[in-house]
Amino acid sequence: MPRDTSVAVSGTGDSVRVGVGGRKGDIETTVKYKAKDSIRFEIQNRIADLYRESSINYGDMSLDAARITIDYSKNIITAEGQADSTGRVQGRPYFKNGAEAYQAGRIAYNIKTKRGRITDAVTQQGEGYVHAEVVKKNELNEIFGRNGRYTTCNLEHPHFYINATKMKVIPGQKVVTGPFNLSIGDIPTPLGFLFGYFPTPGKTRASGLIFPTFGQAADRGFFLRNGGFYWAANEYIGVRVTGDIYSGALEQWGGFNVTTELSYRKRYAYDGRLGFDYAERPSQPLLRSDAVNTNPNTITRFTPRTFWLNWSHTPVARPGGGRFSANVRTGNPEYNFQNSLNERNYLTPAFNSTISYAKQIRNSPVNYNITASQDLNTQTGTINATLPDVSVGVARQYLYELLGLSSQGKWYEQLAAAYTFTGQSRFSNTEAARTLTNGVPLLGGTTTGRTLPISLNNLSPLLRNNQLSLNHRFDIALGSYPVLKHLNFTPSVSYGESWYLKRLDYTYVEAARAVRIDTLRGFNRVYNASAGASLQTNIYGTIVRKGTRKIQAIRHRLSPSLNYSYSPDFTKNENLYDLNVLPAELIDPTTGKVYLNRDFSRFQGFGGNIPSGIEVNQISFAVQNQIEMKVRNSNDTTGTEPFKKVSLIDGLDFSSGYNFADTLHMRQGLAGSLRTQVAQKLNVIVSSAFSFYQRDTLGRDINKYLWQQANPRLARLNNASVNLTYQFDSSQKRRQPANAAPLAPNNNPALGSPVPIDPYADYVDFTIPWTLSASANAFYQSPGPVPRGQPMPRAWSAVSLNLNGQLKLTDKMRVGYSTGYDFISKQVSFTSLDFYRDLHCWQISGNWWPFGQRQGFNVTIGAKSSLLQDLKLNRNRTFLNR
User: Fold this and answer.
1) How many domains does the chain have?
2) Contact 462, 429 (CB under 8 A)
């Protein structure tokens, strides 16, 4: 009986299971190949030739070339390009094995041993490219090159390269060479070493050394700057530690600087950066004259040891979760002036730091926030800190919901209340000046405050300056109701309390005709209550122009509002004011000022819900105006948006008030402001304040209106400010003509050399993009009456002009500028000019500071790749070495 043909004679099993039980021959998987022209087979020699745009795919290996030959008997694939009629080689082999890719002149690859020989090879390793005359690849995917060149320039013929006879490449890890030298523009230079080591981590970060730069400083001697180590702990954490060391000058130790920076990130949770700088240097005076301090005779002494802390932590918002965030910039006030090369840090007069945690309790109207904040003034050295600042709030709760009633559209359903609690503990290193705001003489004379250094020796006065307040606030909403169909009436009531653990006590000393201030410890409660109501509406006026005109309509929106506010008189409350200080009214014999007992607040400067004291029974009004027009949209060609809105006046507002409880009923005066935009480029903001009362010889308002004087007038301009901001960007998106030449291909060795389409394309476009941001500020203050014989004070106290922007001369070159001028002091503010030139794989950047303490320049030419960031040439003259 014949055997079943589906079973092999050798007993290897069913023919449909070939390849499942084991490998058959040297070819492990299917070889897929194709060619655009033809495929020629030599059956006897087991050779296949592929012509024109040929490609092969074998496992994770792929090969593209003009001609490919497959020798199945030797398991070798050979690929090469072909010359066209002009002699230019087309279809050079492009070999890819996993993540590695090679551009070559000729490739021979053994698919069994996974070894190969590549001539005229180009392969990318990380940020760099490896060129070699001959490359051999082993089964470990390691590359051995002869007459190799390593560069970060992505051209087929690079602008610069590191030339070495022998080279070994471990993909994704490193490139190691023998003796090498640097060539720039095919010109060998004597720069080189006995061996070369270049890490190529690819997409992953790698640890490594950071090489310092060498230079000389006028006050610190020779230095090595910004040298250290970067440690990539993992893909989420990186640590950078660098330092500077100075040889010293004038027989003094030059000092050092250490910078530590930690960057961290947790996906979908948070990311942040923490940096700490510490600098130590000899104490030397420095003449300071710049935009921050315009007095050229001011001498600021250096602090020998300074530090600076930066911390930014940004969370990813998640519903129902807490949010912890931090933005900290603090340290010694002198640090940035002595050490920082950052212009913004150097010019910033104050830094704010905040650390907070906020959370909305799920399924609850309660939310809370815990914050620690600090304000640092670098000019005065003042540090004000709030630690902690706790806030707990209850969102608005409606009365009918609390009573379990259902909504029926009744008026009382609008009644609601909200509650907020805040607790603050404020510290300051500045002792308060021994003076009173009312000008009453103090026992021992009036002294100014002083700034205390932050140290353990000053811990006692720092704690004594602590101000603790616990504040409660209730906001009661009484609803909003229509009146006469077009008016909206909204009443409101608020109540607040503040709790303190100390208060001020005053004692009048008759013999000295002065007041002594004492601080008493204990629990103190202060409350404040107010009520009010508002009536407001909107009035519209429209002018419609029919037809095909450019302007279709003009609309004016007028929003008048009438507000009433009331708060009782707290001046007779002994918990707020010390009413038994003066035996009678005290009159200053020089000014004639009358001092009253109600001038002595027990909580002066404590913050919180401290009432103003005097009764407020005031009616105020405000009028807001907005004018806009509808014009035909000339840019619309589809008809979807034939019209667009253009604002003529964003806001023209006026406000004033009348206080029945004040002897000067219209003390508030008249306030006006104008906001508009011209041609969507020029922003104009004008604000002013007017007074209706006459003034005495000391410049104080008296209870006589201006229209009651000999030369009557309605109001007097007290102060005004003007702010003009102009922004322009000429780099509009240019449309490419229909007959424009095609763009050149990317300069990538894997794609071959680009064909020059138009060698003068960069020179025929005379449009030079530029940006300009200009701001002008002016402030006017009425000088008031001037005693005879004294000079008239300056009315315009501030007039300045600031300019900044950039000029793009070509696609490769940019020039930036920042400057300003103060017309009052007649001085140029901090000025900076910078330029940048892109040299493909190199770049030139520079800064020039022509004026002030930081005048100087800095020019650097170097490789663009971060891998070769130490391959650079720097020349500078800064405030450190001028």
Assistant:
1) 2
2) yes
